[in-house]
Amino acid sequence: MRRVSCGITAVLVAAALLLPALAHAQQKVGYVDLSKAMELTEMGKRIKKDLASKQDSLELQVKQQELKVLNLKDDYNKKKAGLSQEALRQKEQGLEQAMMEGQELVQKSTVEFEQFKMKLLKDFIDKMETFTGQIAKAEGYAMIILKVEDFLTGSSVILYGAPEADMTNKVIQKLNSSGAK
Q1: Res 79: pLDDT
Q2: Which among 101, 90, 104 has a CA at the least distance from the CA of 68?
Q3: CA atoms of 65 and 105, how far apart (whole Å)
């Protein structure tokens, strides 16, 4: 995730440095809105569905582990009065082990979900890049910028984009007509 953020930042800095020169040379600059493309393409809709499914699956695994811990804790509390010191120690160790496994599962699930999401988004952006390049070459654009939202602030990285520079609908049309899934 950090590499993607650094990459996006580098692209934006480069774009900011190049935009004055491009404007002076009267070359066309456009943008493609990632959020809009995700919402209006079959591939974007599938990605959202796959992400929701993956998240549900991982959450179910975590809930099952939490239930295991609760059952062990309940069993321990019910039986602790009649158990020997050794048996109590074993039950406590089992409970602690289950709790540690639960924490590890949460961490592992978070990493697994983020990696899954990054792969899907990378594939989507790669497809968009292919079609955007085709359109840009055909229509004489010097640069096309990917409009994304900053995940920390929720604000767009492109503060203003003239409607005539928005190539999103053209890219969406190409993505959907290509059967990209």
Answers
A1: 84
A2: 101
A3: 8
Q: How far apart are CA 18 and CA 47, in angstroms?
A: 33
Which residue, chain included where needed, has tokens 């990632």?
A: 34
The answer to whether the CB of 55 falls within 8 A of the CB of 114 is no
Integer-rounded Cα Rg, in Å, for the chain is 25
Residue 29: strand pairing partners: 143
| CA pair distance 138, 133, nearest whole angstrom | 8
Instruction: Give the C-alpha separation, 11 to 8, whole Å.
Output: 5
Which structure tokens are listed for 37? 């493309």
The pair of structure tokens assigned to 50 is 């796959």
Kindly report the pTM of this predicted structure: 0.75
Helix (H, G, I), strand (E, B) or coil at 144: strand
| Each residue's pLDDT tens digit, 97-114 | 999 999 999 999 999 999
Amino acid at 17: L
Separation CA 93–CA 112 (nearest Å): 28
DSSP 8-state class, residue 84:
-
What's 57's DSSP letter? H
Q: What pLDDT shows up at residue 98?
A: 92
State both tokens at 128: 């968009």
DSSP state of 154: -
Kindly report the backbone phi and psi dihedral angles of residue 10, in degrees, each rounded to the nearest multiple of 5, phi listed first: -60, -40
The residue extents of the domains of the chain are 2-178
Strand partners, 32: 146
